[in-house]
Amino acid sequence: MIMNHANILLQTILAVMNTMPEEKVAEISTTEGLGAVSMPDYDIPITSSPNVTDEDELEMKKCYDTYGCFSINYPWSSLKRPVTLFPESPAKINPNYCLYTRRNPTECQQLRLGDSSSVFRSNLMANEKMYFISHGYLETANKTWIHKMVSELLKKDDVNVVTVDWIGGSGPTYTQAVSNIRLVGVMTAHLIKMLMEEGGVNPEKIHLIGHSLGSHLSGYVGHKMKEFGARIGRITGE
């Protein structure tokens, strides 16, 4: 366990170093001796209050069209969280959503963001309960535990089960994966919004289930749905 934490810390440090621009490298003047070292700021926000200028705010957020802007200002950065990153792009993370029902218990029917035809072609049952299952760090939706959960849910009731596969953003580094779930949560909320508008799904019949970072991801989904004026029925994380 100690080695795992050490590896994650090392990966995070290397990732931060790789994102620093070349001009930020420490400059050592040989004419003034080794004691003359210029160490400029690396612009890693560690403020514990939101008091920043408009210019700072522009530099501390990244926008992804439909999915909005993501800040690394407070509360995403603080003295207790000195290192934070922007989410990677939607194209890089590229979450995959597979719908399973009793009519297709093992065959993935892909629900595609922005593609209402994927809803119409699917076996979606708008009046039945719907589960979303999200995996954690370094995982994929092809994990055995997810397949077993899909199978058991379908055995118990005639429901819809959607797996959220965000392997494109689930690691490493851990710090980057933590940032990526913010975007995946928003993207998943947009998918649910499409299911509501095009498929007649009732958000109060949706149960979000997450493991590890997937539980936090589910929380971001619920938060975004509130912005859409909808309320998710239940969220479970472990």
UniProtKB/TrEMBL annotation:
<keyword id="KW-0732">Signal</keyword>
<keyword id="KW-0964">Secreted</keyword>
<dbReference type="InterPro" id="IPR002331">
    <property type="entry name" value="Lipase_panc"/>
</dbReference>
<protein>
    <recommendedName>
        <fullName>Lipase domain-containing protein</fullName>
    </recommendedName>
</protein>
<comment type="similarity">
    <text>Belongs to the AB hydrolase superfamily. Lipase family.</text>
</comment>
<keyword id="KW-1015">Disulfide bond</keyword>
<feature type="domain" description="Lipase">
    <location>
        <begin position="62"/>
        <end position="237"/>
    </location>
</feature>
<dbReference type="InterPro" id="IPR013818">
    <property type="entry name" value="Lipase"/>
</dbReference>
<dbReference type="Pfam" id="PF00151">
    <property type="entry name" value="Lipase"/>
</dbReference>
<dbReference type="GO" id="GO:0004806">
    <property type="term" value="F:triacylglycerol lipase activity"/>
</dbReference>
<dbReference type="GO" id="GO:0016042">
    <property type="term" value="P:lipid catabolic process"/>
</dbReference>
<dbReference type="InterPro" id="IPR000734">
    <property type="entry name" value="TAG_lipase"/>
</dbReference>
<dbReference type="GO" id="GO:0005615">
    <property type="term" value="C:extracellular space"/>
</dbReference>
<feature type="signal peptide">
    <location>
        <begin position="1"/>
        <end position="15"/>
    </location>
</feature>
<dbReference type="InterPro" id="IPR029058">
    <property type="entry name" value="AB_hydrolase_fold"/>
</dbReference>
